[in-house]
Amino acid sequence: MSEQNFNTVPLHTPPLSVSSSSTEQNITGSWKYIQPAYHDRVAPCIAGCPTGVDIEGYMSLLRDGELSAAMELLQCENPMPAITGRVCNHPCESRCNRANYDGAVAIHAVERVLGDMILEEPLPHWTMRKHDERIAVIGSGPAGLACAYHLTRLGYNVEVFEKEEELGGMLRLGIPGYRLPREVLDSQIARYKAMGIIFHTGMRAGTDIGWPRLTTEFSAVFIASGAHVSRLLDLEGDCSRQSLRSGLDFLREVNAGGRPDIGKHALVIGGGNTAMDCARTALRLGAEVTVVYRRTRAEMPAIDEEIEDAAREGVKFEFLASPEKLSGTGGRLQLACTRMELGEPDAQGRRRPVPAGGEPLLLEADTIISAIGEDTGLHDLQAELADAKLAMNTWGCEKLARVFLGGDVAGDERTVASALGAGKRCAIYIDRQLRQQHGEDIPEERLEAIRIGGSESLSMARWTNSDPIMRVSPQNDVVQPADINTAYFPREPRHNDRHAALLKSFEESNTGITTRDALAEAARCYECGVCNECELCRIYCGEAAIQLDPGSGRFVIDLDHCKGCGVCTAECPRGALVMERLANMD
Amino acid sequence: MSQTIIKDRIPENELLMGGHLACPGCGGALAMRLVLKELGPKTIVVLPACCWSIIAGPYPQSSLKVPLYHTAFETGAAVASGIRAALDIQGQHDTNVIVWAGDGGTFDIGLQALSGAAERNEDFIYCCYDNEAYMNTGIQRSSATPWGAWTTTTPSKHPQATDKKDILAIMAAHRIPYAATASVSYPVDLVDKVKKAMSIRGTRFLHILAPCPPGWKFEDERAIDMGRMAVQSRVFPLVEVEHGTDWRFTMDPEHVPVQDYIRAQGRFRHLTDEQIGHISDAVDYRYEHLRDLAERSQAKV
Ligand SMILES: Cc1cc2nc3c(=O)[nH]c(=O)nc-3n(C[C@H](O)[C@H](O)[C@H](O)COP(=O)(O)OP(=O)(O)OC[C@H]3O[C@@H](n4cnc5c(N)ncnc54)[C@H](O)[C@@H]3O)c2cc1C
Ligand SMILES: Cc1ncc(C[n+]2csc(CCOP(=O)(O)OP(=O)(O)O)c2C)c(N)n1
Ligand code: SF4
Ligand SMILES: [Mg+2]
Predict the structure, then answer these.
(1) Would you call A33 an interface residue with chain B, using a CB distance cutoff of 8 Å?
(2) Do residues A309 and A410 lie in contact, with contact meaning Cβ atoms separated by under 8 Å?
């Protein structure tokens, strides 16, 4: 439509006034003081995942039916989804923006289904050697396996030294088979072997292979030796009896196939994962089980589901009871406990138990299992560890550190997910270190840019520049519940995983959800913070100012005509648009 | 209501241009854009005086890519009747003629022209975009203004004292082939109704609620939210009626309390909880009545 001046109207002017130009020449965009911008942001689940998995990313791919891309994205960050899908304490779910609407997305259940599918798949083609360097990993728990996995994918030659005859660390020694079937663990480890990771079992670092050899033959060493020394229970009386057992030893024996006779009644002392596993294992050996814990249910460090499952299976609990004295004759044991109450919070904010006075609680049992925690006990490597810790404090990079550590031994939160995150983090540090030695300049900001939502977790997809989601502000901007427009999400209850009937058997107790339910569950994901081209912004724009750019496939805003009403941002279901103040308005 | 379905069901036609003069967040501008998406380029718009007279742009501009006739306030339906007749004489039966009028131009001053055209069953679609007052001239009350609302002519001390006129029932009483309510907040329902109207001949009537940020006193970005709450609270149910007798609900979204809708708008700020309670009762009563109509219609089939 051409612009016409009043004076130049043609002679054959029609008998009524007819428009001859469009309103597009009016720069109504000048009315605004704020303007919308597409900002892909970080979903809270991802920010809450110690492993740093792009959960929102793979959920979105699943929704689009891109199953293999979803599996690849998951494996890019998590070396063992079939395992975390079963045993992870899933902090992602407690942060899910859907949690307070109609229930968090059952992320772990979806992850498990995908993880099991991955185990069925042939290995993808990412195991190419690119570097000459050899790297030693000490310990084959989740931290060590994760570091080895990521370094191998990055093209390094990795050798793992494990003092036990079998691989897996606490995944095998601690976590019982009814929670993590050994076939799953074994096929996961078989894949690492197929990737080319070399495993040396029965090789204890420090003795079977000396420290000098490790540091000269290998370009870098990652220590992930875990925490394996059961803390001792300090009791009055004779504690040397057969029937007072350390929780870890007990689990190791049963996990290795042993079925010890523990009598009719077992007491388990402690409130962590080890205690819950001991209790449920003792139950499966036919005993009646009571857990004795100094504080209350709320302070128990064990994963919530574990506690619930223990209670559901019939484990009884004595809270606010602190074991003091052991006595007894024959097979029967008596345990006297002081009654406690909760006092002031300790350094971690947990309320400290203090004696409440009154009569002691007397308990009887055939077996008492002590599961009050584990220490690292790596005395032979003390000096090296101190060195490594120092180096790690500076992102493991300022000094040309060659020793790194992570997982339980490094004081990380004692979960599989944290161990996996630490293994990945150190793999990235080592990669950076070695490439810098070859003259590449990789500034520290590069590490900052791959941090997820301001957390400790690093993104391997971003490190390798293979992030399928082009986030504009990837670092720290986490989507809040208030950023979600729930009008676009009809309420739909979450698919909970199914528990086998109370068999009290050593078969897997949680049977998971079906593939179909997993896909339906993935579709419940809000896809927080990342535009998935739902086009609501464009549909609701009263200025017709939002159009799809065929070139980039992204939406572009005609700022000459956007009046800054904010409807697009308010209606965006997932907080992928934000209103920004115009610079000249400040 | 999956979002993929929403985008797949909104036609690509873009017949509204930027640079128009509606306020930021105007439901009326968006209503026109969505309705024209379905109608397509072979459409003539008849426009009695209203906000849209301004939105269309100052002479010699136009914000529409289809012809638009500015007409006198009370004449929308009469002018459309004439244009339809002229097109029919030319054999252009496939050109859509629509009236685009405000609530003042429909419920009040344009009502006799509309009633006459409906009586003759003139062949056009009459769209009333309802912002519940005379907004163009500075927020004066109309017979579409809800009970209790503030306007410049019904100040908070003497707010609107009459009930909103039931225009859909009035049109249904003319037994026109198709009449429906619609909302910019339910775009699929809206375009579906336009599509259905296009498939019918005779007088078709669409009553589209168009939230108005300055007139209702709410934040611009909440325009869609306001329209959504109007429907969810059942203040503005989405229904259609064929031949004046067959009533049907077209959407039954999750319910929200009337209170939420009322309290979100400055024009109702002076109302007490008790007064809102009365509004809520009236809403329930009307909703029950609609449900009876819909159930009776259902039973007939
Ligand atoms: C009973 C129990 C149940 C648990 N349940 C859960 C759960 O459900 N979910 C969860 O998230 N977390 C759970 N945890 C915690 C979790 O298992 C650990 O946090 C995690 O395994 C730590 O991984 P890591 O690699 O640091 O150490 P580990 O898994 O302990 O692995 C360390 C490995 O290093 C080896 N090693 C040690 N010293 C040497 C040496 N000098 N040379 C060579 N090898 C050496 C060890 O033999 C071991 O294989 C549980 C822990 C226990 C004990
Ligand atoms: C006969 C006549 N009286 C008064 C006016 C002034 N006038 C122009 S638009 C308008 C208000 C229109 O109200 P409504 O139809 O509700 O449309 P809105 O502006 O609210 O969109 C009035 C009173 C006029 N144009 N013609
Ligand atoms: S006053 Fe209301 S109806 Fe009129 S242009 Fe502004 S927002 Fe739209
Ligand atoms: Mg009006």
Answers:
(1) no
(2) no
The CATH class, in words, for B3-300 is alpha beta
In chain B, domain spans = 3-300
Note whether B61 contacts A561, CB cutoff 8 Å. Answer: no
- Say whether the ipTM exceeds 0.95: yes
Subunit contact A487:B225, Cβ cutoff 8 A: yes
- A143: its two tokens: 């931290």
Q: Which of B10, B16, B223 is the closest to A567 by Cβ?
A: B223
**How does A380-409 read in b/e, with b if 16+ C-beta sit within 10 Å?**
ebeebbeebbebbeeebbeeebbbbbbbbb
C-alpha dihedral sign at A150, A153, A157, A162:
positive
CB–CB contact B18 A560 (8 Å)? yes
Q: What is the pTM of this model?
A: 0.90
Q: What is the pLDDT of residues B73-130, one digit of tens each?
A: 999 999 999 999 999 999 999 999 999 999 999 999 999 999 999 999 999 999 999 9
> Which residues fall within 8 angstroms of residue A515, CB to CB, at 6 or more apart?
A113, A117
- Mutate: best of A567, A569, A571, A574, partner B, most B CBs <10 A: A567
Give Cα A75 distance to the centre of its chain. 13
Question: By 3-state DSSP, what share of chain B in percent is helix, strand and coil, each rounded to 5?
Answer: 40, 15, 40
What's phi and psi for A316, nearest 5 deg?
-100, 160
The tokens of A502 are what? 């109370």
Residue B25 CA to ligand 3 center (angstroms) comes to: 8
DSSP strand pairing (A510-512 vs A403-405):
unpaired
The answer to whether B25 contacts A565, with C-beta atoms less than 8 Å apart, is yes
Residue entry with tokens 């992870």: A88
Cα nearest neighbour of B219 on chain A: A565
Name the residue of chain B whose CA is nearest to A573's CA: B3
Sign of torsion over alpha carbons A4, A6, A9, A14: positive
Average pLDDT, chain A: 89
Give A565's contacts in chain B (Cβ within 8 Å). 24-25, 213, 220-221, 223
Please check whether residue A578 touches B, CB under 8 A: no
Express each pLDDT in A59-90 by its tens digit. 999 999 999 999 999 999 999 999 999 999 99
Rounded Cα distance between A102 and A493, Å, is 6
Residue B37 with chain A: CB contacts under 8 Å: none
Token code pair at residue A481: 């519940």
Output the CA B129–ligand 4 centroid distance in Å: 7
Residues of chain A neighbouring B3 (CB-CB closer than 8 A): 488, 534-536, 573
The band of A1, judged by pLDDT with boundaries at 50, 70 and 90, is: very low
Residue B247, C-beta contacts closer than 8 angstroms, at least 6 positions apart: B172, B239, B240, B241, B290, B293, B294, B296, B297
Q: Which structural domains are found in chain A, ordered by start?
A: 29-119+468-581 (no CATH), 123-228+376-442 (3.50.50.60), 235-374 (3.50.50.60)
